[in-house]
Fold this sequence. Notes:
By secondary structure, this protein is α/β, with parallel strands linked by helices. It has helices spanning 5-22, 78-91, 101-105, 110-119, 139-148, 160-164, 176-186, 202-209, 226-236, 240-248, 256-266, 280-288, 298-306, 308-328, 346-354, 359-363, and strands at residues 35-37, 54-56, 59-61, 65-67, 94-96, 124-130, 153-157, 191-194, 215-217, 271-274, 293-296, 342-344. Strands 4-5-6-7-8-9-10-11 form an 8-stranded parallel barrel, surrounded by 5 helices. Strands 1-12 form a two-stranded antiparallel ribbon. Helix 2 (78-91) packs across helix 13 (298-306) and helix 8 (202-209) runs parallel beside helix 11 (256-266). The longest helix has 21 residues, at 308-328.
Amino acid sequence: MHEQPDERISRRKIEHLEICLNDQVDSSYKALDDMVLIHDALPEIDKDDITIDKKFLSHDFKAPIIVNSITGGHPETEIVNKNIARAIELLGLGMSVGSQRSAIKDPSMERTFKIARKEAPTAFISSNIGVQQLKELTKTDIEQIIDMIDADAIFVHLNFLQESIQSEGNKNAEGCLDEIEKLCDMVNIPVIVKETGAGISRETCERLKDTKISAIDVEGSGGTSFSAVEYYRAKKEGNTILADLGKDFWNWGIPTPISLLECHDIINIPIIGGGGVRNGIDVAKVIALGADIAAIARPVVKPALKSDKEVLALLERYIEGLKITMFLTACRRLDELREIPIVITGYLNEYLTLRGIDVRKLAQRKRSRYGH
Ligand SMILES: Cc1cc2nc3c(=O)[nH]c(=O)nc-3n(C[C@H](O)[C@H](O)[C@H](O)COP(=O)(O)O)c2cc1C
């Protein structure tokens, strides 16, 4: 019997979780590792005085961290959103549910998303929809996905790399910018445009700048590669051509630090730094490069399939790691991270230099309150 398209979308959710749980899906180059925050052996601050709370889109975060869009849309995904929601509510962080397309097509899937708001009544929670879907969705559909979780914002994801390595992928990217613009006029919550692991270039950001989006989430390469994820799916389905293509494009994309520096240069709206954020040091690094908050996705999959306590423990490790990094770089507040010197080495240095970003200036940044 042939599978219905809706059943296929739903099954794909589980396949993505399983692959991200069991297989190696990270890009083989993590540019955040080519970046060093200089250690201060005499920080002259009390670690207990460090504050990391952050206002993001009028919402108070107790730490600058959001658990990024992962899942929903299959009965077995409810537990994941539930465990993430419980942990972020307790810690005062934010989260986004995964693409809500499936719940529009099949209302029985709504509960897999609704659980997030049920378990996190006060936290920042974002809706999520693919840019290609915007063409087919009505205003009522959009209102439905927002109301479903009483969303504080809506992420529009750009994932043309992934779509290109999927047999069922939607490869028509025409008219997307117009659709983003229409969405901004249609809803009364912030619209955030996000990539999904291939980053946003200066040139793309220039075009997004002319829309009414409220924030941008760069989601660069260096973490989860959706070409890798689709490689495993294609291999399992016996589609060798797509599997080979998945391998070819495994490391495609703009590394997270580059995307951040390029976007930060030209856009004056909040920026989320994600793609390969794997500990509290990485959180500090993306903030030092201009992000307002950091986003984490795949590391949360494993604990979220187990329990809320496991998610809590992971996020607490990120938070403590951020505080230690701030202590060792003498930063009492998050905005001071933007002033500390950063040494950029290797491929990242070469890439940034060729794109006209002054890496020497970054290495020689001077703290205005340094040594206070
Ligand atoms: C299992 C899984 C499912 C995902 N599903 C979505 C999705 O539905 N919508 C979306 O915008 N991004 C989705 N993403 C992408 C993440 O939000 C994030 O942009 C990307 O994984 C890079 O972050 P990371 O390196 O921390 O994983 C998914 C990621 C994972 C690991």
